[in-house]
Sequence to fold (306 residues):
Amino acid sequence: MNSSHPFSRRQILRHASLVTAGALLPGMQRAVAAPAVPDALAGRIYKTLKVGMIKSSGGLVEKFKIAKEAGFMGVEMGFPGNDVAETKQAIAESGLPVDGSVCGEHWSVRHTSADAATRAKALENLKQALRETREVGGHSVLLVVGKGEDGPENEIWSRSVENIAKAVPLAAELGVQIVIENVWNQFCYNHDGGSDQTADKFVKYVDEFRSPWVGMQFDIGNHWKYGSMGGWIRQLGHRVLKLDVKGFSRAQNKFTPIGEGDIDYADVRKALHEINFHGWLAAEVAGGDLEYLKGVASQMDTAFGL
Fold:
């Protein structure tokens, strides 16, 4: 898993994913006039959303068409858990690609578990997610590594790294990145702490894998309660391979729609420029119908200057 040139390889991976996205989306323009927003990210970010957000009585084909009409450029699937053949049909009939997936059962079947059989199942799920994501043309699998309740931090840290590392050779073989999401799982941050926390532990955790195939799908809303999101992005740097977004209000101590609440999006945009981020931004908020999703896409445009 070691690489003598991890940074250059990471840049190659990022640019390759963007070229692929452009090839699958012929209607997209390479140069986009940026809105009058400081540090606008137009032309750098592709909007996607979790497939579960698309509310429709139809199948995946209809859901993909709704996502496209709403203004999204890709759909993030869930594997294992969704049908590969139906997903391929949805891609073909809508013209919308799958950019990646969320690993199935990762909250309940965890890499941090003290039970060896559970960890084996978690590894099996991750490998299946990698294979199925590659089969439909995606390039990332989002992973929640576990929960702090599974044991002391030093124990769950080491056993989760050991378990997930077993999937890294497959990720490299398939060309699909394992992207760890920062979530409220009592791991790598102090769940009862204040808003002055840093991303130090996330940096160290990702670096344990010593591989360009493991990074972060950094969720901008999840840890605003605990620290500066612009600051965390700067700390994580090249480790940020993909983004999730939702709103959060420190004042009200609750999640909000994108753009509402008090997240410092100006600093987030500035930080993303500083780390030279180009890639996918996934909405992770409540779902809805076409008109609702048009609103979500518009909120993303406003917050990020798209």
Summary: The chain has one domain: 6-28+44-304. The CA atoms of residues 59 and 86 lie 8 Å apart. Residues 6-28+44-304 form a domain with the TIM Barrel fold (CATH 3.20.20.150).
